[in-house]
Amino acid sequence: MKSRKTLTKLFSFAVIASLIIFPSLARSDRANEVTPDQEHRSNIVEVDGYAQLSEEKSIRDIRQEAFANARRQALENAETHIKSQTRVENYQLQYDLIESGAEGVVKVLEQKDLGIEKNSRYHVWIRAEVTYVLRPAAEPAKQKALMSPDAPLTVKIWTEQKNYRHGEYITIYMEGNRDFYARIVNISSDGKVIQLLPNGYRQTHHFRGGKRYQIPGPGDRFELKVTPPYGQERIVVYASETPMGDIPMKSLGGGLQEYQGSNDELAFRVRSIQPVARPGGSMTSGSTSFYEASWVVETGP
Questions:
Q1: Is domain 42-135 given the CATH code 3.40.50 in the classification?
Q2: 33 vs 182, more confident
Q3: Predicted TM-score (pTM) above 0.90
Q4: Nearest to 237, CA basis, from 160, 187, 182, 178
């Protein structure tokens, strides 16, 4: 798939300038049947870590202790959050925390050294990701439990087919089990990373749980048509319970945007979760669910 005219070979989607109107979609059980090609579940946690000053320890050792305490607190917060969301109907969804390199189950995304506080303790802050694997009940009838609003955040994304030929048009569908924020990107066969939604004409980034969305959809000014170069196209959804940080993009035709770095870099940057104000005006720390899934299609002549 690729674009037309001035966007030739930038990416695999043909862009049109006219407004496309789409009929409303009827609800179906398709989202309950979709299995992502890849899936990544985690909690993004922001916590403070402290360590008491001691004449028996160096400042360096106390600083390391403060960061170790922050990572431990991040893990505890994430486990509490996961457990609170894994009971659906009359059975328990099981989960496994998994290790991520030398950091163990906690991957630090950002950290701040706030130094000595009140001449009594060392203060640090971290934003960390705690990754886990969810194992639903084996019976097919209970797979739909993942789409229950009582389950951890799950956003299914799919197309009608897994293989497309030259000239065919592709429609992407998306549905989440609860309200969520999301970015949807396409990673083309030549490595281009194009953000499909939000875009310049359809700036929606917050979606309702239980509602099926489509791309292209109402307000979009592009179409997804298979043209060379052919190969594997990966459609990725990044979703969270709270808004994601702003990411600079290069503007393309049809309101689309291209990320100038690699997909791994984008995956890291979208995990910059924006804090949400509580009713009293203070900012939320704690834990927020994050979900990443990809759907792969093959294109050919």
A1: no
A2: 182
A3: no
A4: 182
